[in-house]
Backbone:
């Protein structure tokens, strides 16, 4: 098979992009997926209630490591909310136009939806949830008893996914990015994923937790677990988190 990496980079150069939907007058896609009205939502505590540090940024960067073993102690709901806010928290909204968040994104497009596999979070039944960033809430996706094992299988059996207190899964709603940038937007999705995950590493370090990013997964299997079509919305990256042993 011919290598596809160079082809992707070549065909997403500016000279091949044509007129993006924004310039063509196509209406902007929604800033966020709405929660399923048939599923319950749960408000998260204000992230400022979490005592992080005090620690210097340089020290956080120096201490950052990928951690694959976690203590059995759970996260509490405020800590989970703090980590979600640090990775996708909304600081301002221009209605119908943009959200301004705690991480950078090309053109403030913020194409990611954050899913959480909650394994050990106080006051939160084990299962899969989606972060409704504009409301700082969790929307229930699935509380099936095999949710953790299904996600772990899709990650080729990497056991620390199931052993984590919580695993963060970032899916891209591609049209949010391509509406402005066309096919080049697919490059930006992967850049944005790095911004998000690095924030998780540093935020987790500030509350005594460790993180391990995961890019090895079966795309079709993991998308199916989350109920994603794999074309218009698909998982790009995930990371396990938990208290350090």
Residues:
């Amino acid at each position: 098979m011919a290598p596809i990496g160079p082809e992707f980079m070549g065909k997403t150069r500016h000279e091949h992009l044509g007129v993006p939907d924004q310039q063509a007058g196509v209406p902007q896609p929604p800033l966020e997926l709405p929660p399923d009205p048939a599923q319950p939502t749960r408000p998260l505590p204000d992230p400022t209630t979490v005592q992080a540090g005090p620690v210097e940024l340089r020290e956080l960067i120096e201490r950052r490591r990928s951690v694959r073993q976690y203590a059995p102690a759970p996260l509490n709901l405020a800590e989970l909310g703090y980590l979600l806010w640090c990775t996708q928290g909304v600081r301002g909204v221009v209605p119908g136009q943009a959200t301004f968040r705690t991480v950078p994104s090309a053109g403030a497009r913020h194409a990611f939806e954050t899913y959480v596999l909650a394994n050990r979070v106080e006051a939160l039944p084990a299962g899969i949830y989606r972060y409704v960033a504009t409301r700082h809430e969790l929307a229930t996706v699935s509380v099936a008893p095999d949710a953790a094992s299904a996600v772990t299988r899709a990650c080729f059996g990497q056991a620390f996914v199931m052993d984590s207190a919580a695993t963060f899964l970032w899916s891209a709603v591609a049209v949010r990015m391509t509406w402005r940038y066309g096919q080049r937007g697919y490059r930006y999705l992967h850049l944005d994923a790095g911004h998000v995950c690095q924030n998780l590493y540093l935020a987790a370090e500030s509350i005594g937790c460790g993180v391990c990013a995961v890019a090895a997964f079966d795309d079709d299997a993991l998308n199916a677990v989350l109920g994603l079509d794999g074309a218009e919305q698909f998982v790009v990256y995930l990371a396990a988190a938990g208290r350090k042993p």
